Sequence to fold (413 residues):
Amino acid sequence: MATKYWLGTATAVAQVDTVQITAYDVTTTYTLTVGGVDVETLGVTDADGTATALAAAWNTSAHAYFTGVTASAATDTVTLTANIAGVEFTASSSVTGGTGTIGAVTSSVTSAGPCDWATAENWSDGSVPGSGDTIIFSDNDVNVCFGLDNNSLAINDLQIAKTYTGKIGLNRNALVTSADGETVDTTKAEYREDYLRIDVDAIEIGKHVGTGTAIGSQRLKIDNTNTGASDTRVFGTANTGAEQFLPPVRLLYNSTTADIFIRSGSVGIANDEPAETAIIGDLYLNGVGSKVFCGDGCQIQTVVQTNGNSLIQSSTTITSIDIIDGVLTTEGSFTVTTLNIEDGTLYPNHDAAGVSITTLNINGGVVDATRTSELRTWTTVNLSVGGSIKVNSDIVTMTNFNDPSGEYTIQVS
Fold:
C-alpha cells in the first residue's frame, strides 16, 4: 500500500493499433468499428488488397470518430495511428458474410499522456495506483481524461482537495479531440468511458485546510459501483459545473451500505444522464449551502437533511426521510415509509401507484403539496402544533389525518 499524488507530468505518446486480414473472401464484408460507428469494405483481390481498401475506407470517412486517427496498410495489415499524441481511441474489428476472417485490433504502442490515469509518469512515485493505495489530488489543475476504466482496482482512499481544479471524467455529449481534454467536437457524443470507474472504500471531496479561497473542480465524475460498504464525504465543491445544468460533482454507487455525507457544495447522484442508476445507503445532507440532486434511477435507503436544498428521487421505497431544516423536494414515483419534518420546507411532489407516504409526521416547518397536480395518497398524517400543511384535498388523499392534541388554531384559505 502506498500514498500517491496526481502530478500529470507525463510526455504524450501517440497510440498505434494494428489489425490483420487473416483470410480473404470477395463476399465477406470487413468492418472496423469505433463507438458503434462502422467503416467497411468488401474483400478486394486478396488479403493485401482488402487491407488497403479498409484503410482507405477509414481515411475517407468524415465522422469525427475516425478523422482523429490515420489508417495505413502494409501487406495484409491495417495500422491505425492517433493524429494527436495522448488522445486514446478504441477500435474493434468484425466480418460478415462469406468465409473471410479478420484478427482482433491490438495495440502496438499504448497511448500515454499528461491526462492519462494509466500513465506511470503522472504519479508521484512513478507507478500507477494499485490495490490498497491512497490517492490524492491537490494543488493541481491537470485533467484526468483517459485511462478512466479502473473498475478492477480496489483502493482504500480517494482524496480530492478543493485546491485541485482539474477535471476528472469527460462530458458525455462532446467528443474530446485534444490531449488535455479541453478541445472537443460538440457535434458528436463521447464514446469512451466518461466516469472514473474505481472501487474505493472512502472518498473525500473538497476539503480545504489553509488560507485563501480554493475554488474546486468543475467536473468530478466518479463511478464507485463495484464496491460494497463505502463512505463519501463532500466538504465543498466548485460553484458551477463544467456542463450547463449539471453539478460539478457527479457520483454513482451500487450498494445499500454506500453512505454519503454532504456538508457543502453541489452534488448529483445518478443525474448525469436519464438512464443512470445508483444504489446508496444513507444520505446525510447537513450544509447550509449544499445542493443535492438525486436522479430518478436512484435507490436510497434513508435521508437525513439538517440544512441545504435537495431534490430527491428514487426508483424504490425510501425507508425514512428526516428533515431538520432546509428545503427538500421529492419527485418521481416511489413510496416513503416514514417522513418526519421538524423545520424547513418540504415539497412532496412524488407520487406512487399505491401510497406515496405511509406516515407523515409534521412536527414543525411547512409541507406544501400544491406544486403538482399528480394524484397522491398519504396513509397517515400526524400534525403537531408548530407545523403547517398546504394541500388540495382533491389531489392528495389523507386516509388518516390526526390533528394536534390540546388547544390549537386552524387556518383555512
Q: What stands out?
A: The mean pLDDT is 95. Residues 304 and 322 are 5 Å apart (CA to CA). The radius of gyration is 27 Å. The chain has two domains: 16-109, 120-402.
